[in-house]
Please model this.
Amino acid sequence: MILADTHCHIHEGFGDDATDAARRARDARVRWVLTLGVNRADSERALAFAASHEGVLAAAGVHPHDAADATDADLDALEALAGDERVAVVGEIGLDFYRDLSPRDVQRRVLDRQLDTARRVRKPVAIHARDAHDTMYPLLADWARGAAPSGDRPVGVMHYFSGDAELARRYIDLGFMISVHTSVTHPKATTLQEVARAIPLGDMVLETDAPYGAPQRYRGTRNEPAYVVEAARAVAELRGCGEDEVADATTKNAMRLLGIAVAARGM
Ligand SMILES: [Zn+2]
Model:
């Protein structure tokens, strides 16, 4: 059994412990980890960390919280970075109308620009959408029609999915994968639990968003990629199937998302 954590910030949120956290992930059979940048400098750090740690891949992007600080020069530099063959995904990008740390029109403009980037470099996007699905869904429906990631990769992933099962299916119809976060283990996470039960395993990936949001077993502590196993276990329980089945399917999906070729699987 091997696992993949399709969303974390290991290069930034772990300080001196980052290399050890990457090792603990490997020891826990988390074979692939995607670490995502939230602005230009952070994306460069994500790439540097990925380049020096086995099994860690990088994503480059401007998070909606950071959108107000992104200059045109930053967005140009990020497009160049996104084209680097060592960058797997364009992200973390999106809209956050819950915290509104950047003005909404700026969030929208920065997202649009990066969706264009993803289309040009033919890579999937990692989407953050919080209290923003009414705007996000039609926008992505429009964009996804023209998106053509290379190979058999999905157009993107809905990170830390926060909608219901019906909305999840609509994003799946657009070609997105749905990411189930380790918070699926929280007793009150009933909507996410229903999503985890209802959508096909073939459209699901798992994530920790570490260092944020620890699973129930480790609540109150820092989350880390090794804990993605908690999400796999919870999904298996919810679906009444084996943990291996969940691990196999979600890891295969993650490899498609990340563009990891069969020859490089090392399984
Ligand atoms: Zn994130």
